[in-house]
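This entry is passed on directly below:
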Amino acid sequence: MQSTQKFILGQTRLFMGLDEETLGRIAEHTEIKNFTKGEHLFHQNDAAHAFYVVIDGWVSVYRGSPDGQQTIMHVFKNGESFAEPAALSFGFYPANALAESNCTVLEINIDSFKSILVDNPGMVLNIINNISQRLFSMINELEKLQTRNAPLRLAEFILELCPEQSGAASITLPFSKHCLAARLKLKPESLSRAFTSLKQYGVVTDRGSKVTVESLGKLQELIAN
């Protein structure tokens, strides 16, 4: 089992560049967990005892307000890690983590992880470098999204979900449209207009969570232009 967890760690950006021995030590203090759609991994203000890597599925991190409003901060997919700052520095989770679909995650115990960091000063620099690269990538992604209008952002996301890259395709959105809007950095009403715009192009037909792509080629042309 630990070989599986070691492999997952090695494929995660946060741990890239670490040697096999160090990955093995970290893997000893991890656990693979499954969550059903709608289940919380942790709640806002809970003690931060671990951080996570998404193996499969989607996890949103959101904050709640006293009046019951929820603001989704980010949606994480397979291969992405989250809650490291909370576990390493804050000691508590400043937001909630929710399974937006049935998902599998790797839970990394923070106390054990800190002990390994103390014994491996070079690893600290590697982790800092990887976190910095991830932040830089997130900034680049945000800048890229800002250059795309809402229909293009939606079209690119739908293409990523399509198993084929030619002909027609039918997919199911992996989470709610509210969550999708947050993933694409759009307001819900902007996402709704984007779906309408793609229908007018005759490319995508949306029926609830079902999306039919009549021509992947046309969708690709729309993005290319």
About this structure: The two ends are 47 Å apart (CA to CA). The chain has two domains: 2-124, 148-224. The mean pLDDT is 87. The chain is about 45% helix and 25% strand.
